[in-house]
Amino acid sequence: MSSAPLFSDRSHAGEQLAQSIFRALSELQATGISAPPSVYALPRGGIPVATPVARLLNCPLDILVAKKITRPQNPELAIGAVTADGHVLWSEPKQSRKQQESLREEALRQAQAKALDQLSQLASSCPQFKPEGTIAILIDDGIATGMTIAVAAQALRSYHPAQVWICAPVAPEGLIPWLQQWGDRVIVLDTPHQFMSVSRFYAEFPQVEMATAIADLQQHNLKLLSQQEIPEIKI
Fold this sequence. Notes:
Layout: H1 10-30, E1 37-41, H2 47-57, E2 61-63, E3 66-71, E4 74-83, E5 88-90, H3 98-122, E6 135-139, H4 147-157, E7 163-170, H5 176-179, E8 185-190, H6 210-227
Parallel strand pairs: 1-2, 1-6, 6-7, 7-8
Antiparallel strand pairs: 3-4, 4-5
Helix pairs in contact: 1-2, 2-6
């Protein structure tokens, strides 16, 4: 693999991803399936990637917040993931020792609290419509372990969309078969064999600030509201 980054920034990656998703939706419609699309970003990094997708598809941009569950001694290693509404996915089997189980449950509570806090800051900028019957397109800026996007897909499926698609600019090659059990379709632009981290595939990969995330959501959804009515029904 070339050492050159695949994408200049998240917006550039989102524009390329939008084209791939648009083609896949067109192919699906040709088979007679005409469910409308809806786009969900994993905040905060997924929002600037998802924005060009929602713009091209002319559909609402919502969020689905999921956080890694980690051990205090290794905050980078995910032992699971949880959504703000309480869907949980573990990467390790349940511990039998009471002390270990207590630590695991505390890690879960902390991760869900972070998810709820982030949701509280972003929710007012989202249309919060029901994805039932739509092609629900779940987007992040990259997939490393897959835990957060998998639990997000699990949560999204509970709202009965017609299909759930897992989409990202980049993910490890070996992770794709595992992701396919969580989504009806997986769209990843590049699947390098040597992965290491998502950031290495971007020339610019700054942290997405909360103010920027809110502005992106508001700008897209307010523009869409001026063109068509989006039912503001909380799920």
